[in-house]
Predict the structure.
Amino acid sequence: MELKEKIQNELLENPVILYMKGTRDMPMCGFSFAVVEALNQYEVEYKTVNVLEDPEIRVSLSEISNWPTIPQLFVNSQLVGGCDITLELHQNGELEKVLSNAKSSTE
Amino acid sequence: MTTNQVKELIETGLPGAAVEVTDERASGDHFSAVIEWTGFEGLSLLEQHQKVYGAVGEYLTKEIHALQLKTFAPETA
């Protein structure tokens, strides 16, 4: 299966998914760490994908999302944003609403 | 890169924008920018940032490792 297809399936199968550098327990970049920290303050299940495992992931992902940098947070296959936007939503209380929309799709 | 080069890149891509660029780590590759631009009106935060990334183009992830953004449309008084 082509990488792009694999990513699109991942987006469909996981209501909340974070493409990041490193893992949830071992983030390898400050921006990825900041998003994980924000997400961990909500009771939300989320999958993480370590883009460092395969440099091609980043290329295919950016083609899908039209977003050049990592991390990238998706809810219901929609790009929420990178670190700046996720933290801005977190600070103004909107991230909770965005994440709660994700839960409804798994029930 | 220098903050001026980044500033010029953004100003070229977003004509008329008010742009302030800071070299976050004085390392010439981690920048933050505050941008006010009429062209952001009606755009979501995501679309605003995508416009800026479009202006910076190929430099991002190459010469520019990180570009933190604070974008907003002018307050309509």
Remarks:
- Chain B has two helices and three strands.
